[in-house]
Design brief:
The chain is of the alpha/beta class. Helices cover 44% and strands 16% of the residues. The chain has 12 helices and 12 strands. It is globular and about 65 Å long. The protein binds nicotinamide-adenine-dinucleotide (NAD) and 2'deoxy-thymidine-5'-diphospho-alpha-D-glucose.
């Protein structure tokens, strides 16, 4: 198995690459990543010398580069995670989301389709797995509702619109060209290596450095949190055993209002940093709401649980403790990603192919 994983230097991708490199030593794993501000190879320093691992620096928006790479390396499978992933950035710069998330995905679909169709065994044994998000379903307002695989798409932000478009293209290639595709839509991930522009790592960093904790609006928005390693385990299950043409929703049945989550983080951090109870919560600052802010996401994950036997392995409080510990023990990682030092370092080290 020659497996291409895109976006493997990012938050979720690095956990997926690590899982596959260590669990499947017989696979050759190729990690293709542009190394944007969000991706850095320090996330993978523990496995970078593994004999079944190769890093390729490149941009999925470059169709010729993608075609040439497929022709040269003849992958058997693709797990596609590369994306622009931050909703706030999509509000200020939607076009980079269209380019990477939509155009980049179609470039990969074309390369897979054309290379596989031209090979001796055609699409037999091949698999294109597209990793997506619950945000494509829009926002829930009724507390009894959950997103199922049948929920109609209703994306509300430029980010979720770009991911919805990419999902549609993947299904269209499955339907039109019979490309062997499978998809999953996951809820909010958290854990080690989470880029500190996202809620949980940003709050941990700001508590540690005594900066304001910016809570958007009234902090009433609800997210369904899943430990990143559990998402990587779900991706393993879907890639190997998911039925072709199907979609699997992945989530932790773990809903939290933002403000309650921030209070929980404050309590954990006060304890870890030896500060009197209530110290960190004083940093909470309500700020202008995100434009078009989705109220609630909640995933019904019964299909993947029943069909593929997957379930989350960690309770949220355990996962959050682990995450806080990781950030406190990896101050150098945090300093290097926030200063942009990793990006400069790895840019100079790896020329584009
Ligand atoms: P991330 O922003 O941490 O990582 C994205 C990676 O993609 C980075 O390493 C970046 O360098 C790379 N990349 C970006 N543009 C590229 C390009 N043009 N060519 C090649 N590589 C490029 O994102 P993440 O949070 O790890 O999310 C990974 C995937 O999972 C995304 O598709 C995202 O939509 C999806 N997802 C994320 C979450 C979440 O909570 N973070 C939840 C569900 C689904
Ligand atoms: O649901 C899956 C999605 O989860 C993924 O597809 C996205 O890639 C990922 O970024 C994440 O999107 P969110 O917008 O939900 O995550 P974020 O961490 O940016 O925000 C979580 C919630 O916290 C959201 O309601 C906005 C709020 N928030 C966020 C930030 C950064 C704040 O209140 N303050 C903040 O400073």
């Amino acid at each position: 198995m020659k497996l291409l994983i895109t976006g493997g230097a990012g938050f979720i991708g690095s956990h997926v690459v690590r899982l596959f490199v260590t669990k499947y030593p017989e696979y050759q794993i190729y990690n293709l990543d542009k190394l944007t501000y969000a991706g850095n190879l320090a996330n993978l320093s523990d496995i970078e010398h593994a004999p079944n691992y190769t890093f390729i620096k490149g941009d999925i928006t470059d169709a010729k580069f993608i075609d040439d790479m497929f022709a040269e390396l003849a992958f058997d499978g693709v797990i596609h995670l590369a994306a622009e992933s931050h909703v706030d950035r999509s509000i200020t710069d939607p076009m980079s989301f269209v380019m990477t998330n939509v155009v980049g995905t179609v470039n990969l679909l074309n390369a897979a389709k054309n290379t596989w169709a031209a090979g001796a065994s055609g699409f037999d044994g091949k698999r294109f797995y597209h990793v997506s998000t619950d945000e494509v379903y829009g926002s829930l307002h009724n507390p009894d509702e959950f997103f199922t695989e049948e929920t109609a798409y209703d994306p509300q932000s430029p980010y979720s619109a770009s991911k919805a478009a990419s999902d549609h293209f993947v299904r269209a290639y499955g339907n039109t060209y019979k490309l062997p595709v499978v998809l999953s839509n996951c809820s909010n991930n958290y854990g080690p290596n989470h880029f500190p522009e996202k809620l949980i790592p940003l709050m941990i960093h700001n508590i540690q450095t005594n900066k304001p904790l910016p809570v958007y609006g009234k902090g009433e928005n609800v997210r369904d949190w899943l430990f990143v390693v559990d998402h990587a385990r779900a991706i393993d299950a879907v890639f190997h055993n998911g039925r072709l043409g199907e979609t699997y929703n992945i989530g932790g049945f773990n809903e939290w209002k933002n403000i309650d989550l921030v209070h929980l983080l404050c309590e954990i951090m006060d304890r870890k940093l030896g500060r009197p109870k209530g110290t960190s919560a004083q940093l909470i600052t309500y700020v202008t709401d995100r434009a078009g802010h989705d109220l609630r996401y909640a995933i019904d994950a019964h299909k993947i649980m029943n069909e593929l036997g997957w379930q989350p392995s960690l309770q949220f409080e355990q996962g959050l403790e682990k995450t806080v510990d990781w950030f406190l023990e990896n101050q150098e990682w945090l300093d290097n990603v926030t200063s942009g030092n990793y990006q400069k370092y790895y840019e100079s080290m790896y020329a584009n192919r």
